[in-house]
Automatic annotation (TrEMBL):
One of its GO terms (molecular function) is kinase activity. The lineage of its organism: Bacteria, Pseudomonadati, Pseudomonadota, Gammaproteobacteria, Pseudomonadales. It comes from Pseudomonas taeanensis MS-3. This is Histidine kinase. Keywords: Kinase, Transferase. It holds the Pfam family HDOD. The keyword Protease does not apply.
Length: 483
């Protein structure tokens, strides 16, 4: 696929997924599903599908030998032996799951993709375990139906190119209608794209039925639906009102008490973490809600940090305080604390760093930081000021006395100034950067981003970022005049 090519409309996206990005995944999914439909599928036919790809074969055997699937730990060296020992359906499911993970997570995956895939795995385990209560067979089909329920959205975040940035930015706007934003960027909905892929890949009855509300009385479809809802509600907390209602529905569906239903749901969540790790997707484990009370608290704090929202009251208060400090002598530490708090808690910027000129103005060093995962910057972030062979964005903004919003079209021409060392330290994506000046005296550079959650930055945040930088400069200038 040519970089920069836009896709618009359902067929355009189906073609893009099939031809440009995920053809191997589509072929494996199709073949594995076809074998499930044929009454007399043989061990050899399934082995042949998996053996076409040596990497897939080795991964399926690794999963088949895991304690989760093979508690007796009898060594499995061939696909045929795996089918005999752990079952045709299990090997088929492993093949499909491993293909999905490989197809989507081998690139540098966006946070949105990882979160959705983690939720899909969690929902799939919940659905399969509920199906075990009400179905005599087809539990693996229910797992696959839940796993592929958001296939269209997974495919988009996995291979949507620049349009993923466009949609992330649109979804970050306050009060946005998510469905309308998706339609505007893709020319179709995620639901339609999923249904289009299901039809194109011929994924069959349960996957199709799961998207049709008219089939809600089918026990397999009901299990998929409940699994999907549990996977989503768990992100709000195990004790949330929506989870309480779902547990009552689960109890009614599988014929147990509400307490037993809750235990089943929590056990499935624990199992989902094991399943993700077993399938080689350990990076997803941290995104599946934990059932340990202490871990629940930690995860809730992490989600809170991810969903840091601007607080207008804190923002205005910090600006007022800096305004007062500019006209009165104030402590440098207090000025910088007010600056970082205003940008982080007030403007809702997830990571903020002030770097100052140090070592005889030969380098930039991190002086103050705030936000999740920024502690290491205080020791590790050091950047030479003058690098004629590789000029960088920090020196550029200080020299040009200009605040910049990197990652938007207006600043694309300066992208080469975001050097490899900067990317390694700070990651990739949008950020704000501005010079900090006390009158004409160069102090350092202020940096801010929202990469904890991967959300796009907003215009109002950039305006606040510029205002805070200017006011802090006035505060520091006032100090030098009185010093």
């Amino acid at each position: 696929m040519i970089l920069g090519t836009r896709s618009h409309g359902l067929q355009s996206w189906i073609d893009r997924v099939n031809e440009a990005e995920l053809p191997a995944l589509a072929a494996v999914v199709q073949d594995l599903h076809r074998l499930a439909q044929e009454e007399k599928s043989s061990v050899k036919q399934l082995a042949d599908v998996l053996l076409r790809d040596a990497s897939l074969t080795s991964k399926v055997l690794r999963v088949a030998n895991s304690v989760y699937y093979n508690p007796s730990q009898e060594t499995i060296r061939t696909i045929s032996r795996a089918i005999v020992l752990i079952g045709f359906d299990n090997v088929r499911l492993i093949g499909l799951s491993v293909s999905l993970i490989d197809g989507l997570l081998t690139r540098a995956p966006r946070e949105q993709l990882q979160e959705l895939l983690a939720r899909s795995f969690h929902s799939a385990v919940q659905a399969r375990n509920l199906a075990g209560y009400v179905l005599s067979r087809h539990e693996e089909e229910v797992f696959i139906a839940a796993l592929l329920y958001h296939m269209g959205e997974l495919a988009f975040w996995g291979c949507g190119g620049e349009q993923t940035d466009e949609l992330a930015s649109a979804l970050a706007q306050p009060g946005v209608n998510a469905d309308e934003a998706v339609r505007a960027v893709l020319g179709t909905s995620f639901r339609q794209l999923t249904q289009g892929l299901v039809k194109d890949w011929n994924l069959g009855a349960i996957v199709s039925l799961a998207h049709n509300a008219a089939n809600h009385n089918d026990p397999a479809v009901r299990a998929v639906s409940l699994g999907m809802q549990i996977g989503e509600a768990a992100l709000q907390g195990w004790d949330s009102p929506v989870m309480e209602r779902l547990v009552e529905q689960v109890a009614d569906f599988i014929g147990v008490s509400a307490e037993e239903a809750m235990q089943q749901v929590l056990a499935s969540a624990d199992e989902a973490v094991k399943v993700a790790a077993t399938f080689g997707a350990s990076k997803l484990c941290r995104l599946i809600p934990n059932t340990d009370p202490e871990q629940i608290r930690v995860q809730q704090e992490q989600r809170k940090a991810k969903l840091l929202e601007p607080n207008l009251l804190i923002l205005q208060q910090a600006l007022q305080e800096l305004g007062l400090m500019a006209s009165q002598r104030a402590d440098v530490g207090l000025i910088l604390d007010t600056l970082l708090n205003g940008l982080h808690q007030g403007a809702g910027l997830e990571r903020v760093m002030l770097v100052v000129l140090a070592d005889g103005q030969s380098c930039f060093r991190a002086k103050r930081v705030v936000g999740e995962g920024t502690e290491d910057w205080l020791n590790d972030f050091v950047l030479p000021v003058q690098q004629s062979e590789q000029p960088h964005i920090f020196s550029y903004v200080l020299r040009n006395k200009e605040a910049l919003w990197m990652g938007v079209p207006a600043s694309y021409s300066l992208n080469e100034l975001v050097t490899q060392p900067i990317r390694q330290s700070l990651g990739q994506g949008m950020f704000f950067v501005a010079p900090l000046l006390a009158g004409t005296r160069q102090i350092g550079v202020l940096y801010a981003d929202s990469r904890v959650s991967g959300r796009a930055l907003k215009h109002e945040q950039f305006v606040a970022f510029q205002r805070f930088t200017q006011l802090t400069g006035r505060c520091l200038q006032a100090l030098t005049k009185r010093g």
